[in-house]
Amino acid sequence: MRRRRRLLVPVLVLLLPVVLIVGIWIGSDPGRLPGFAQDVFGVDRDALVYDEVVDRITEEYYRPIERDDLLDEALRGAVESLDDRFSAYFDPRDYAHFQEATSGEFQGVGLNVREVKRGLRVVSVFEDSPAERAGLRDGDLIVSVGDTSLRGKSSAQSTALIKGPAGTEVELTYMRDGRQRRVRLRRERVTVPVVESELVERGGRKVGHVSLATFSSGAHGEVSDAVERLKERGAGALVLDLRGNGGGLLNEAVLVSSLFVGDGTIVSTKGRSRPERTFEATGRAIDTKSPMVVLVDEGSASASEIVTGALKDRERATVVGRRTFGKGVFQEVMQLPNGGALDITVGEYFTPDGRNLGGGGTKKGAGITPDVKALDDPATPRDEALDAAVRTVLRDGT
Q: What secondary structure letter does DSSP report for 335?
């Protein structure tokens, strides 16, 4: 027995390098294993097929192709196959732009836009921005960036094409009054005016008007500061203007709602791989009693609809304006090892009354119908919708 053990040790010592070399050889190409062995070792055959196709293209295609470019296009195609306008793949460059936008600062041309079938509708143009200096206006329809059509692209995909390093140029094609125009803009570093506020006086009574452009990180703090300043100046009622606000971060929607609702449900969510979750009011409410109106239009979507739905269902505010977009799903951004990210739909959300504002899945739904319908006429200097909101909140306060 002892003799056998003494012989076994040298044999194992000799075999170990052989086993190691064979393991490295197989690990470098698991496809060399026979089918039954691939199953035993859990080899992903789909991944093997993809790697082989990419290898063939990069090695044998008639012109040079970057492997990273093939990966980006494959991932983009996989997401596009979902037929979900709200989901997107961001390559590393696009993801960097996306992160800038949600932080409230980015490099671009200074436009607030909303997604439509043909491209991007301009909601507002930032003051002293490249877009304003080039003559773009509210209501213009951007249909292409360079030679790339925006038809059918998500807002995230389209805006990623417009943004870019400060100092570089971008060419936009847009429609106005049925005529197509083209303009070349030089990008700059742009700070998004997330919150704008003013004091409106009617018949000796003061109303605070707070306009929120997007639910970027820290938006709730800016809304809170603006409301507090207006109250110090004598505002006895409030109009929260969410027109053209296409949404943003879910947690910011909860925090903004919580400024005006002291406790209870704000929104609930449910997904196939996500447990049902209820978000309650959190933080310090700054005003739970003053008469309040939420002013919306068809560009108010996602996080804007969460806030509007919460304040309406909780009977905290009257809704004035036009019917909202009708988005009943939410997305989650998942960073990838290549520096890019997936922004995909992972669930549906529901207002405190249990309503989903979408049309089932990712389809556009009924949205929120305002209590008081109001429409602004862009051809006049007056803001008719805001006037209606002020009249309503003063009436509610009597």
A: E
| Distance (Å, whole) CA 241 – CA 233 | 19
Active site residue 364: no
Q: In angstroms, rounded to a whole number, what is the distance separating the alpha carbons of residues 42 and 38?
A: 6
Of residues 153, 163, 312, 327, which has the active-site annotation? 327
Give the active site residue among 216, 302, 312, 383. Answer: 302
Residue 33 or residue 253, greater confidence:
253
Among residues 313, 343, 376, 383, the one annotated as catalytic is 313
Tell me the mean pLDDT in the region 257-263. Answer: 96
Average pLDDT over residues 173-182: 94
Of 90, 74, 101, which Cα lies nearest the Cα of 341?
90
pTM score, whole prediction? 0.73
Catalytic: 313? yes
327 as an active site residue: the answer is: yes
Question: What percent of the chain lies above the pLDDT cut of 70?
Answer: 87
> 291 with 239: CB under 8 angstroms?
no
Residue matched to tokens 């009693």: 289
Q: Sketch out the chain's domains with CATH numbers.
A: 24-63 (no CATH), 107-190 (2.30.42.10), 195-396 (3.90.226.10)
